[in-house]
Amino acid sequence: MRRSTSSPGPRHTRPVIAKALSRWGHLLQPIVLIALGLLILIQGGAFGL
C-alpha cells in the first residue's frame, strides 16, 4: 500500500497549544482524569445523590 503524500506525518498545527501542553500537561492530565472519573461516578449514582 502506498502512503498518501498529502500528509507528511504528525505535525503541530497549533504551536501555542503544543507549548502549553508540554509545559503544563503533567499537571493538567491528572486533573482532567479525576474530573472525568468524578463526573462518571456522579452521573452513575455512585454517591446516592
Summarize the topology.
Elements: H1 15-43
In DSSP terms, counting alpha (H) and pi (I) runs of 4 or more, how many helices? Answer: 1
How many DSSP E strands?
0
Determine Rg (CA atoms, Å).
18 Å
Uncertain spans? none
Give the mean pLDDT: 82
Strand content: under 5%
Question: What gross morphology would you assign?
Answer: elongated
The sequence of SSEs as H and E is H
Global structural class: mainly alpha
Largest sheet: none
3D architecture notes:
- The structure is a single chain.
- This protein has about 50 residues and is mainly α.
- Helix content is about 60%, strand content about 0%.
- It has one helix and no strands.
- The protein is elongated.
- The termini are far apart.
- Keywords: Membrane, Transmembrane, Transmembrane helix.
- This is ABC transporter permease.
Which key features would you list for this structure?
single chain; mainly alpha; 1 helix; 59% helix; elongated
Question: What's this, in brief?
Answer:
The chain crosses the membrane at residues 21-42. The protein is mostly helical and 49 residues long. It has one helix at 15-43.
